């Protein structure tokens, strides 16, 4: 079978031949339908993130995937069932975090991540997985189910942010998303689809006309150009925010979020920045957090509960939003375009490895 991977000798993603995997007891064989591309994939290709499987000279990419059960084996799944696989695995089969169904909370070094750290991903024509790592999703999501994984990350961040405000009556009305990439737009679609926030904003660095600005405004949110209004100037230009999601990976934004929050507000950090140095007024930021009951939370990965809620949420998003978000889907023979097509009109790309046929 064909698979898309990075190798120790390659300068970019390559197509390789691998044997079709044979499911072990308790595993199902999954035929891959589509795989989404995100920033983590580009970091792995650049060599700034990721880890090869032990004793391997390559890593099969792909952690945002949707597939169909080809051979259920003894799992109890049904042939033809559409599934989205979760990402993390316990490297030795024993972990209290995995036993509790909380792999996303496992500390660094105690897990593998398929397609990212220590384990081959889903960017192949077939893959195998144990049933507990597969989330059944409606067949109506067969073409877009690779969005379940990033949306699950959004749901976890919202869950943690809300939990941090659970000791009092929190009645937020304003929300800001930092970043108009695919993850930021998924967060914006989520928060504008609820009745929680009366006013929503999204920050970016794009000139009009631009497809992401069109999406932001069609969702009913206000576009904020960071070149004209930096994060710490948003309260004086617009308003202080009850909830802020940082999805840019720009390190100063984490600290500027504190100033942009309203009293009792919370910021959720999703971006993963490179190491950088800059000056901050630590005392002032400390005072803001303490004296105004503000909070910052970091969030990474997600668990099967977040995958299930993401599947439910994805079905509620307007069709126009999904069509606008997924700008290009390429056949396997043209996979390189999914990685190289990074102009301002591109938001989210995917590769189709096989077609879905309802049975």
UniProtKB/TrEMBL annotation:
It catalyses: D-glucose + NADP(+) = D-glucono-1,5-lactone + NADPH + H(+); D-glucose + NAD(+) = D-glucono-1,5-lactone + NADH + H(+). Residues 25-138 form the Alcohol dehydrogenase-like N-terminal domain. Substrate binds at residues 40, 113, 149, 301. Its EC number is 1.1.1.47. Its cofactor is Zn(2+). One of its GO terms (molecular function) is NADP+ binding. The keyword Zinc applies. Pfam families: ADH_N (PF08240), Glu_dehyd_C (PF16912). NADP(+) binds at residues 180-183, 205-206, 270-272, 299-301. The keyword Zinc applies. GO terms for biological process: non-phosphorylated glucose catabolic process. Keywords: Carbohydrate metabolism, Metal-binding, NAD, NADP, Nucleotide-binding, Oxidoreductase, Zinc. It comes from the Archaea. Residues 142-353 form the Glucose dehydrogenase C-terminal domain. Catalyzes the NAD(P)(+)-dependent oxidation of D-glucose to D-gluconate via gluconolactone. Can utilize both NAD(+) and NADP(+) as electron acceptor. Is involved in the degradation of glucose through a modified Entner-Doudoroff pathway. Belongs to the zinc-containing alcohol dehydrogenase family. Glucose 1-dehydrogenase subfamily. This is Glucose 1-dehydrogenase. The gene is gdh.
